[in-house]
Every structure is written in C-alpha cells, then in structure tokens.
Amino acid sequence: MSARWTMPPRLRHLHGYWLFADGQEARFWRDAQQFLQPFAADTALLTSTPGSADAPQQIAQALAPGQRMVAYFGHGSLTQWGQDRLLDTASLAILPDAAAPLMLHFTCLTGLFTHPTRESLTEALLWHAGGPVVVLAPTSLTLPDDQGFLARALAATLATQPDQTIGAALVQVWQQLPPDQRMQPGVQDVLQTFLLFGDPALLPK
C-alpha cells in the first residue's frame, strides 16, 4: 500500500512548518491540528494511510525544499516513527541535505540515547549530513494525552515569540505549567523524559 499525503500543489514548495501525523489513529491528526492553530501561515499537515510502505520517500519529497520546522505526532520506537516505519534510521539516506533545522517528536522512545547497542532515531538524525540542528524527543514511553500540554504550549510560544531560542522557549513552557498539572504522574513523566538534543540557541524562525 502506498502512502497518501494530503499535499495540495501550492504546498509543494512551502518553506515553513510541516507536521506529519501517524495514520494509525485519528487522535494523532487532531493533536497535530491543535499544534498548528497558533501559526498564521506557511503550515502543512500530512498523514499516511495505515499500512503504507513508501512513506519515507514521500516524507523526503515533502522536505526537499527545506523547511524551518518538522513535527511528528504518532506511535514511535527507538529507531522509527510509526508502526509502518514512516521514517527510520535505515531510510535517512534518502532525506534531502537541507532538511528542517528543528524537529519535534511527539511520540515515544525516539530519543532513547542510552541503549547499549543501538542508535536511536534522534541520534541518527543529528549525525546525518544536512540533518536537523535540534531535536526534541522522548527517551521513554508516555501517553499522547500527557504530551498534549507540551505540544500546545510550545506551539503557542514559538508562534508568538519567534525571536526566542528553542531552549528558552522550552524552559518557558516548563516554568508556566500550573502546579496542579505539574504534579500529575503522566505529566511528570513527560517533564522528565522529553529532552532537547542539539543546540538550544537555535532560533526557530
């Protein structure tokens, strides 16, 4: 089965913010839509058909012009996005040399850098020639509902304060979290396991 991406012709040369949603569950599409709401323009949201086999090629095509930011919402593991291997460590060679400088992974385990024998997807992306400068990625398992506060707050901060570095934006999100929400076990898991890999001084604009 081939991947089906919602990509109107006018978006094929868009230099902006691209989001990819795992087609396995509708909630990933909804989460990605909520993330995009604060951004006024230059955004695109793509999703795949469950069981797709050529998603990496489609992602590479979407990223070919070079984007400012790419975010993924969906299932994940140590070495890949999604159950259908939408993007994995083995397919990075087909990515363009001018891929987005900032990547956000709202998923599970793609940043598990402590594995004794295997390289995580985040590590592979950072080492890839022309890959991202910064990746926000999880080192453990957390639920999408618990990740939601981070995605929504970070999107609002990036959209309204474009002159702030990604590191400062993330710190602001942590600091503004209400105490009662901060104490929720699932939210604590997200706070403790989502890490910023790369250069925190990147200006995501």
Main sheet properties? 6 strands, mixed
Structural class: alpha/beta
First-to-last CA distance: 36 Å
Could you estimate the helical fraction of the residues in percent? 25-40%
Give, in spatial order, the strands making up the sheet with the most strands: 2-1-3-7-8-9
What's the CATH C level? Alpha Beta
Give keywords:
Rossmann fold; about 35% helix; single chain; three-stranded antiparallel beta sheet; about 200 residues; 7 helices; alpha/beta; six-stranded mixed beta sheet
Can you give me a brief rundown of this structure?
This protein has one domain: Rossmann fold (3-Layer(aba) Sandwich). It is built from 7 helices and 9 strands; from the N terminus they run E-H-E-H-E-E-E-E-E-H-E-H-H-H-H-E. Strand 7, helix 3 and strand 8 form a beta-alpha-beta unit.
Walk me through what this model shows.
It is a single chain. The chain has 7 helices and 9 strands; from the N terminus they run βαβαβββββαβααααβ. It has 205 residues and is α/β, with parallel strands linked by helices. The protein has one domain: Rossmann fold (3-Layer(aba) Sandwich), CATH 3.40.50. The strands form 2 sheets. The protein has a 6-stranded mixed beta sheet with strand order 2-1-3-7-8-9, sandwiched between helices. The longest helix is centred in the last third of the chain and has 17 residues. It is globular and about 45 Å long. The N and C termini lie far apart (36 Å). 42% of the residues are buried.
